[in-house]
Amino acid sequence: MARNKLVIKYQDGRIIKGWVENFKSEREMIIIHPLREYSQEEKLEINLNELKAIFFVKDFIGNNKFQKAKTFENYPPSTPTMRHIVVHFKDGEKLYGTSYSYNPNKNGFFVYPIDSMDNSIRIFVIKNATEKIEFP
């Protein structure tokens, strides 16, 4: 079974890195296998409502010099299936990307970074951690 690397960000600011094997966005819980520096437990069961977002990443190190996109100016226009989206989180952070799965009636949705250099492959945003969603 394929294991996806992820970084989980809680609404209170905590972060956990680890792996998930079978993520289902419609579930209320996620079971992850955390890296040892975050937990000695083999598995952690986490309620999605505690989270801000789940970042499915290329690697755990990332690039601390990378500046995330804060505009759509240098990126292709959105299409009917992949719309530009700006997610305003309750903590003040903004996430710029594209989405084709946004549904205001669901608990969360996927956002894809607009910059191919971003360490995130996709991000599952938890709706109750957001203040506002824009489609520019």
Core attributes:
10 strands, 136 residues, mainly beta
How does this model look, in words?
This protein has 136 residues and is mostly beta strands. It has one domain (1-136). Helix content is 0%, strand content 45%. The chain is built from no helices and 10 strands. The protein has strands spanning 4-10, 15-20, 29-34, 44-47, 51-57, 83-89, 94-99, 108-113, 120-126, 130-134. The protein has a 10-stranded antiparallel beta sheet, with no helix packed on it. β7 and β8 (108-113) form a beta hairpin. The protein is globular, with a radius of gyration of 15 Å. The mean pLDDT is 87.
Summarize this structure briefly.
The protein is mostly beta strands and 136 residues long.
Largest sheet: 10 strands, antiparallel
**Into which percent range does the helicity of residues fall?**
under 10%
Query: Which structural class do you get from the secondary structure elements?
Result: mainly beta
| Main sheet strand line-up | 4-3-2-1-5-9-8-7-6-10
- Approximate strand percentage: 35-45%
Question: How many strands?
Answer: 10
